[in-house]
TrEMBL record:
Stated name of the protein: tRNA-specific 2-thiouridylase MnmA
EC class: transferase
Recorded name of the encoding gene: mnmA
EC number: 2.8.1.13
UniProt family annotation: Belongs to the MnmA/TRMU family.
Coiled-coil regions listed in the entry: none
Gene3D superfamilies per the UniProt record, alphabetical: Adenine nucleotide alpha hydrolases-like domains, HUPs, Translation factors
Record-annotated tRNA-specific 2-thiouridylase MnmA-like central domain positions: 203-269
Organism of provenance: Paractinoplanes globisporus
Amino acid sequence: MRVLAAMSGGVDSAVAAARAHDAGHDVTGVHLALARNPQTYRTGARGCCTLEDSRDARRAADVIGIPFYVWDMADQFHESVVDNFVAEYAAGRTPNPCLRCNEKIKFAAVLDRAVALGFDAVVTGHHARLGADGLLRRSVDDGKDQSYVLAVLTRAQLDRAVFPLGDSTKAQVRAEAAERGLAVADKPDSHDICFIADGDTRGFLERRLGTAPGDIVDSRTGETIGTHNGAFSYTVGQRKGLDLRVPAADGRPRYVLSITPKTNTVTVGPREALAVDVVTATRVIWHGEPTPVECDVQLRAHGEVVRAEVTVEGDTLTARLHEPARGVAAGQAIVAYRRDPGGDAVLGSATITAGVPVSSGPAEPAVAHA
């Protein structure tokens, strides 16, 4: 099989490319240049869009013995991921840029170009598995599992995806890289958001959206207890950085409960008010059996797993949680998993639109308001 190996410059993608080559595939490595100005993105080992990463990927391809190219996808990345990230925060939602990058760049723009050039599939270093039934499954390494950010892929995209690392732990991958003589064997994993050079998400958004002072309101009293410079700086479940003028009557900390861009208001309240037992979502990708179905749902990357009854009707997914969850934010993904002996299988995913508080009726969204 003729495959294109996406090589980020990290240890995972290098070992994935090497394994594909060992399996007898005709492998070509490609590094995606995603930064319009690489110097403005993270430097050193902390990022995935740097000049150093490009060089590391090229050196790994040389060791493996495969052709290597750099594809400039900066414009597509900026439009599909960076602009989307800013727009989602402006709308009071909390996006996941890694998920969007997988959906729009690695398994849309890259895959489309690869197929047009005659490649059969795209190989990546994601920690996930594809079962014999074609369903995406969790990695054997729970701590590194990336099925959550891949669950947005369509059936057609999964059919042309290869994930060679799903049956290995991260420690095993590093050991193998060292045995192969790959210089990236001990390279630290990338963290945070690759296109925010200094890690200051609030500052990044403020530079693009400007300041927009507004009120922070107590959910119980309706009193204005603080101000902010932009509701986009907050996410549901946030506790730190609220800078409230008036302490709570009971002395307990308060958390962001909802964000209303229309009035530029951030509403805060007690931790228990974050609890929701119904989650609604849209932009549904569903691979599983007809619903309703009992399954596990994950509401954030590396977040808690909750048992739920999931129903899909058209482009709307509704999850009725068996136990309340906290910090459910609009814009994040909800991913449904079926418990299987061979590893949890992804049934589908959708983008969260709202969560219903435990004490509320179905008409009271708790996550974000337009």
